[in-house]
Amino acid sequence: MRVYLKKEFFSDREFLITENASMKAIAFKYSTGVEAIRIENKKGYFIILPFKGQQIWRANFCGKDLWMKTMMDEPQMTDVYLETYGAFLLHCGLDAIGSPTCYEDKHAQHGRLPSVCYQKAYIDCGEDYIAVGGRYDYDKTFVTNYSFCPECRLYENDSVLKIHVEIENRRKDPLEYAYLCHINFRPIDGAQLVYSADYDAKHVKVIRANSDSEKMKEFKDKITNNVELHHIVGAQGEIYDPEICFTVTYKGDENGRAYTLQKSDEGACYVSHPVSSLPVGVRWISRTGNEDSMGMILPATSEAMGYTYSKRTGQMKTLGAYEKLIFDIEAGYLEKTAMDIVLKKIEEIKTKK
After folding, report:
1. What b-and-e string marks burial along 272-311, b requiring 16 or more CB atoms within 10 Å of the CB?
2. Tens-place pLDDT, residues 41-60
3. What is the pTM of this model?
4. Among 120, 132, 165, 185, which is least packed by CB within 10 angstroms?
5. Could you report the per-residue pLDDT of 243-295, keeping only the tens digit for each?
6. Domain boundaries, the chain
7. Among residues 182, 167, 240, 235, which one has the least CA distance to residue 206?
8. Beta carbons of 256 and 277 less than 8 angstroms apart
9. Domain boundaries 2-351, corresponding CATH code
10. What one-character DSSP code corresponds to residue 118?
């Protein structure tokens, strides 16, 4: 059953909008006025902002708060990227991703999509799942016309979100685009990063910045010489203030899917993404004391260094006339048994010739 949402459905008081035998969808409004839906199952919950970027604001599974530590408890009624920052997952693009890095870049940080207002939003309730999705149409006459349609689905016994994305070019002219799925886990000190890529400087590239301090330069040099130094979360001597970005070249399995874990003794934060549609793995780690984020993989079409850089390096993608792109991302938490299965799969991918 699909129900199309209206902003009038939301108020300061929580409202049960739909349920099945083992799941609930509860609508409410933050004190800032931003509409939200909390989807609950046996393993936990996630909170999505159906009209504001379809951001997944919070996620908690198996008793673990998965979202980044942030000073912003509630989403704000603004479209300025860093003035409403702290979500677990944001869709970024399509005009560009990353920060403007030169005078020629005129786009907002991470493009138009993160906080855009959706024209349509809906909730689907099946026998064993509940999903929230929406549609954002952008039309600039004589220039661009596209639809961006994400959906986030949770099954009754699962602790992993299934994120489905459709991008459609609605003009006869080619559509130039970039996309990044900004997934912000909370770091787990003592955990280990494990992922389906070769652990060397060729496949795990540290991004340098002109603003780097001498200590930051030295730390980046160490990681470049031995990328496994950054695999232990919270290791002595690490510096991620304000941030370090990496570009990771992933390998996929027989289905073309790559895997990333933040592995602890109890379980793991988990992402799986398709390497054909999202060939660039952006890694973003920020540990400032006020913010704490393990962006262990932000699946993307290009490096997150702005439009001009992506264009110059041939990383901008193109959809043909009326063409549609569809892909699926998984993000969430795996308990130990499921984690061990993915660890084995990663090892098989890494050793495959």
Report:
1. bbbbebbbbbbbbbbbeeebbbbbbbbbbbbbbbbbbbbb
2. 999 999 999 999 999 999 99
3. 0.97
4. 120
5. 999 999 999 999 999 999 999 999 999 999 999 999 999 999 999 999 999 99
6. 2-351
7. 240
8. no
9. 2.70.98.10
10. P
